Amino acid sequence: MGICFSGRIKSQTPPPTGLNSQYASSNGNENSYVISSKVSSTLRTEGEILQSSNLKDFTFSDLKNATRNFRPDSVLGGGGFGSVFKGWVDENSFIAAKPGTGMIVAVKKLHQESFQGHREWLAEVNYLGQFSHPNLVKLIGYCLEDDYRLLVYEFMPRGSLENHLFRRGSYFQPLSWGLRLKVALGAAKGLAFLHSDESGVIYRDFKTSNILLDSNYNAKLSDFGLAKDGPTGDKSHVSTRVMGTHGYAAPEYLATGHLTTKSDVYSYGVVLLELMSGRRAIDKNRPTGEHKLVDWSKPYLANKRKVYRVMDNRLEGQYTIDVAQKVAALALKCISLEPRLRPKMEEVVKEIEQLQDFSNLDSNRSGSHNGSRQRRRSVGDSGNKIANAGAYLRPYASSPTPYSTKI
Ligand SMILES: Nc1ncnc2c1ncn2[C@@H]1O[C@H](COP(=O)(O)OP(=O)(O)O)[C@@H](O)[C@H]1O
Ligand SMILES: [Mg+2]
Questions:
Q1: EC number(s) of the enzyme (predicted)?
Q2: pLDDT tens digits, one per residue of 96-147
Q3: 109 among annotated binding-site residues
Q4: Residues 243 and 380 in one domain
Q5: Distance CA 184, CA 271 (A)
Q6: Same domain, 181 and 328
Q7: Where a domain ends, among 154, 179, 202?
């Protein structure tokens, strides 16, 4: 979830305490508890959102039992607005089950007394409660009780892309090039679905920690707290407070607050660069001039002979220079300063599909450009057993400050 510039709202506004207090005027103001939804073609109040969704309405004690009282050693992740815990429920009744039996779920518990947290909670219920797509995480239910706000999702056994790309250690071996393309494709399909005419939704917080992976490395977008309906009628953009994450947010959005689907395409380009390079969008631990991935990589992306400098050393021998050049050209288009020059996500999907075909052809011919050097094995190499299969992901705290921070 994202955090607004100040956190001021958090401290000035009393926490919402029940359904009635949360109905608000339908003026579309970001401070009201009304969320517009083109799926239903109306502005919907909180009550309507909760009633219309097919989600299970959990009690707080259900979820307390399911997570064994939110045990610290079952934390899967966390951010500014709360923590995510692993839990177990019976797949039919959804009643808490013994650990190791029934269905595994991920339970996000928001900090209490947060106005912004409540709004993001409601946005997730609104969007994920209506959408069903293989590249969006499935929301199973929610809990709204007193000051408690929780969300219950399908459990994603391999956790976030962020962990796989950037955590070091035996649990997280480097992802192979094939798997990186697979994840890039899945995430692109998720965004393309949101942007499609039918829904017209802008995701607004596309980044590696919000891309979750199932046991087969299928990518699913989660964390819809900042999602927003796109412009209606002949409007070109929606005007919003600037929220999101440094390093991923599009420059024109940062400068003006004008949000379009092309803002998501920019963030997608940044994630593509992270997949190519294994470098974080922002990393202040790197030498001067290399802190911002976009700024550092741009000159290389534009130069066909220097593209390999952007590529992750750990991928040596897994891609051809042709493929690297094509991915670089795509990433460069996505991060264009001029939003109109960025491709639509549907086009990105097609390009990544072609790259996948191309990569498969090449690996069949085993013609990689630098295959002579011994390379380290990575997860997803053919013949290499997938490490960590079905394993429980160790709890990790969220990224410390040298990396991307919330806006
Ligand atoms: N369904 C899930 N399955 C497994 N891990 C999850 C799940 N949902 C979230 N997580 C973990 O928790 C982290 C934070 O979740 P997220 O929904 O992005 O919350 P936040 O609003 O704090 O950013 C993710 O990056 C991921 O590591
Ligand atoms: Mg998140």
A1: 2.7.11.1
A2: 898 889 999 999 999 887 788 899 999 999 999 999 999 999 999 999 999 9
A3: yes
A4: yes
A5: 8
A6: yes
A7: 154
- pLDDT given for residue 364 in this prediction: 62
**For position 130, which CATH number holds?**
3.30.200.20
Q: Are residues 247 and 387 both part of a single domain?
A: yes
**C-alpha dihedral (357, 358, 362, 365), degrees to nearest 10:** 60
What does the pLDDT read at residue 199? 72
Ligand number nearest CA of 82 is 1
As a whole number of Å, the CA-based R_g of the chain is 21
Q: Whose CA is nearest to atom 23 of ligand 1?
A: 1
Distance between Cα 61 and ligand 1 center (Å) = 21
User: Do 237 and 230 meet the contact criterion of CB atoms below 8 Å apart?
Assistant: no
Q: Name the amino acid, one letter, at 238.
A: V
DSSP string, 122-133: HHHHHHHHH---
Q: Is 201 in the pocket of ligand 1 (CB under 6 A)?
A: no
Which ligand number lies closest to the CA of residue 83?
Answer: 1
Say which DSSP state 175 is in.
B
Query: Which domain-ending residue is among 99, 127, 154?
Result: 154
- The answer to whether the CB of 155 is under 6 A from ligand 1 is yes
Q: 358 lies in a domain?
A: yes
Query: Which portions of the chain are predicted below pLDDT 50?
Result: 2-32, 40-42, 367-375, 382-400
Q: Are residues 46 and 134 in the same domain?
A: yes
Rounded to an integer, what distance in angstroms lies between the CA atom of residue 230 and that of residue 202? 6
Query: Is residue 149 domain-resident?
Result: yes
Domain that holds residue 291: 161-391
Query: 149 with 250, same domain?
Result: no
Tokens of 27: 């003026």
Q: Are residues 117 and 140 in the same domain?
A: yes
Residue 396 lies in a domain: no
Query: How confident is the model at residue 383, as a pLDDT?
Result: 33
3-state class (DSSP) for residue 92? coil
What is the structure's pLDDT at 373? 38
Distance 161 CA to ligand 1 centre (A): 11
pLDDT of residue 365: 60
Number of Cβ atoms within 10 Å of the Cβ of 18: 10
